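Is this the right way to post structure tokens for a design question? Let me know if I should format differently. Anyway, here goes:
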């Protein structure tokens, strides 16, 4: 009788937490937007939104994400935040379920922990591609490792979500592609731990994402082309490192570049050069400078390989430490404001009334917590992998930790080498490391001697 009573009580408690999760968590996940009175905006938001209206391609602004924003206009973009909130919670609980760790109370506790200690709710509350960067790492992992533990509907949903995420930003696509390549390289050694069907499905999401992007570009611009801007952004990073100035000094005496007369006036930072009032504007921006910048990028890679390699490694290391929440999320977003005022006039009044547009957002106190948590999470992730290697254990949580570690390194390399270190690039990915660490803590507190909930751990031979 007592056993039955205990079971009923446990079930009742689980049902209570399930109701709490179903009602409260989706709202709490976008609490920053509710507090702001409007979805959070960023300098880049306007560039994505304008793709529907302007009908031409611009550097680093995905038309796929632009369409996603456009379809949320009639709802004040709140439907976009609802999608982002629900997708986040869906992937968190599905990850816990596939790893046999799903309990309602644990799901609620981990979700709340992530909301309080990481950038996750701020990412989910923002009209920007960043939320999909970290989520796509989880969805790709679930497609591969969880192939035998998810339903057909879940597999299709994971496939579509991952392909969409890959199409929203070239850096996200690059990270996912790198993870797939790592999976294929590791499969001969890990065999059944990386199912062939799962790896094939995950790899096809990259293809589908690429086709999605090219199709959207053609539909909106009439050009069958990839989103432009890769070499231009890389040029900015090389200029910031002093490589461009060196190249121009070496070549301007006998070659005619548009930048030669200005080689001693180049700005100190890539952001100032590309997005400020610089000579870049005078020379026609990307349209006028793409060919020259591409040439300088390629030739400087050939002529200064050691310098380029050293600069890339330094930038990658710096990027791993740039993890603060909120970079670029302030009142200074004139381009985005202008796009909304020009193309979505119905949203002007609520946008202007938001706390962000009245300079009431300050992330200083928030980052007193978020930055130490992020850095500690990355260290703990390395510790988890080291412990697993020492015990020759390869369970699903170890695979997830390895996947997230590779994603963090890949993200740091791509973003830092192409664009230069920014807190925004680190914050959008590092919360996944905190999620893995929380899962590991939950596992150790429940079964200290077990390698995995309910499943005997696999050991390396």
């Amino acid at each position: 009788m007592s056993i039955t009573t205990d079971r009923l009580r446990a079930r009742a408690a689980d049902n209570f937490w399930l109701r709490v999760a179903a009602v409260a968590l989706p709202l709490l996940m976008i609490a920053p937007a509710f507090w702001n009175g409007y979805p959070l905006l960023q300098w880049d938001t306007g560039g994505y939104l304008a793709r529907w209206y302007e009908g031409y391609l611009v550097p680093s602004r995905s038309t796929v994400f632009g369409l996603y924003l456009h379809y949320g206009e009639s709802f004040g973009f709140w439907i976009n935040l609802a999608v982002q909130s629900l997708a986040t919670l869906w992937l968190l609980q599905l990850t816990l379920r596939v790893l046999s760790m799903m309990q309602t109370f644990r799901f609620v506790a981990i979700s709340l922990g992530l909301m309080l200690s990481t950038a996750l709710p701020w990412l989910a509350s923002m009209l920007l591609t960043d939320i999909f960067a970290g989520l796509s790492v989880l969805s790709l992992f679930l497609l591969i490792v969880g192939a035998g533990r998810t339903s057909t509907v879940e597999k299709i949903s994971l496939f579509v979500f991952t392909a969409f995420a890959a199409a929203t930003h070239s850096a996200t696509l690059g990270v996912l592609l790198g993870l797939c390549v790592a999976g294929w390289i590791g499969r001969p050694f890990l065999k059944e731990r990386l199912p062939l069907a799962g790896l094939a499905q995950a790899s096809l999401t990259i293809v589908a994402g690429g086709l999605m992007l090219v199709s959207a570009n053609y539909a909106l611009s009439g050009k069958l082309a990839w989103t432009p801007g890769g070499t231009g952004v890389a040029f900015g990073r090389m200029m910031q490192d002093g490589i461009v100035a060196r190249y121009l000094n070496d070549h301007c005496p006998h070659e005619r570049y548009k930048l030669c007369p200005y080689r001693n006036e180049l700005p100190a930072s890539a952001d100032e050069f590309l997005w400020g009032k610089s000579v870049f504007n005078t020379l026609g921006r990307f349209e006028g400078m793409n060919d020259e910048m591409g040439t300088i990028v390629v030739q400087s890679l050939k002529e200064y390989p050691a310098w380029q390699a050293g600069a890339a490694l330094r930038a990658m290391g710096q990027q791993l430490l740039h993890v603060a929440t909120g970079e670029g999320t302030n009142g200074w977003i004139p381009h985005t404001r202008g796009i909304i005022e020009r193309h979505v006039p119905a949203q002007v009044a609520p946008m202007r009334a938001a706390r962000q547009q009245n300079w009431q957002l300050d992330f200083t106190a928030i980052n007193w917590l978020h930055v130490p948590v992020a850095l500690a999470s990355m260290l703990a992730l390395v510790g988890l992998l080291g412990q697993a290697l020492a015990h020759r254990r390869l369970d699903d949580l170890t695979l997830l930790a390895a996947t997230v570690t590779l994603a963090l390194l890949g993200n740091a390399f791509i973003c830092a080498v192409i664009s230069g270190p920014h807190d925004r690039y680190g914050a959008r990915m590092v919360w996944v490391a905190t999620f893995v660490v929380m899962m590991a803590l939950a596992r150790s507190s429940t079964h200290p001697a077990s390698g995995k909930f309910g499943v005997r751990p696999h050991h390396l031979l």
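Format looks fine. Someone answered above. Worth noting: DSSP finds 23 helices and no strands in the chain. Confidence is low (pLDDT under 50) at residues 449-461.
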